[in-house]
Specification:
By secondary structure, the protein is of the alpha+beta class. The chain is built from 6 helices and 8 strands, in the order ββββαββαααββαα. The strands form 3 sheets. The chain has a 4-stranded antiparallel β-sheet with strand order 2-1-4-3. It has a two-stranded antiparallel ribbon with strand order 5-6. It has a two-stranded parallel ribbon with strand order 7-8. Strand 5 and strand 6 form a beta hairpin. It is globular. This is BEN domain-containing protein.
Length: about 220
């Protein structure tokens, strides 16, 4: 019985072993029942306990955590083929207008809407509108960070796209039945979620850079 999956996350290339339940809509019948060139949505949990699904490639399946890792090590001895973004599940999908003419992939938008937690809705919507590579060089309003005053300013997020995000979040809260009297305060929390996500992306980028430096030594 398949219980664990060895994966490589697409964004930061981090490798890990996760329970089979952490791979969204994935029900393998045997150890070779996966597509090595396809991307799957795999759960990632950060240090604060927040979790979300991110794109990842499956390296191996196993009947235990150790077995999956062993299988992956055996597979990595085979020369790897270069991955093309065209194989992404979202690449060739139809797009939808989420407001003011802002078009996003239909599957990505449906994934954003599936979140029960408001924080994950906002954070995933952020990376749906802007790519993570783009967000590495962005800040919410383009201001200096008080913690690091000597760092150069990062470009602010596009104001009209932020307005679209705010509209989407407000519509979600209204659908949830948030009272009109507290709605403005609830909508303001979106900025907090955005800053958290930008910080997480910066940490992942730094970790990837550090890991690359170690590998080159």
């Amino acid at each position: 019985m398949i219980t664990h999956v060895r994966v490589r996350y697409e964004d930061d290339k981090k490798i890990g072993t996760v329970p089979i339940e952490d791979v969204k809509d994935f029900f393998p019948r045997h150890q070779q029942d996966f597509k090595s060139k396809s991307l799957y949505l795999v759960k990632w949990t950060d240090d604060s306990g927040d979790s979300d699904y991110y794109r990842a490639r499956i390296l191996a399946l196993g009947e235990s955590e150790d077995f999956a890792e062993t299988e992956a090590r055996e597979r990595t001895r085979i020369p790897k083929r270069v991955y093309s973004p065209a194989s992404s599940d979202y690449e060739n999908e139809a797009e939808v207008d989420i407001g003011r003419g802002l078009m996003v992939k239909k599957g990505a938008w449906e994934h954003v809407q599936s979140h029960h937690k408001d924080s994950l809705f906002v954070k995933d919507l952020l990376v749906t509108i802007w790519s993570k590579d783009n967000l590495k060089e962005r800040s919410l309003h383009g201001k200096h960070c008080p913690r690091y005053p000597n760092r150069p300013r990062k470009a602010p997020l596009t104001p009209w796209k932020l307005d679209v995000m705010r509209d989407c979040y407000r519509a979600r809260l209204e659908h949830q039945g948030v009272p009109a009297g507290v709605l403005p305060l609830a909508v303001k929390q979106m900025n907090h979620f955005i800053v958290e996500k930008l910080s997480d992306i910066e940490k992942l980028a730094k970790r990837a850079k550090d890991n690359q430096g170690v590998a080159e030594v």
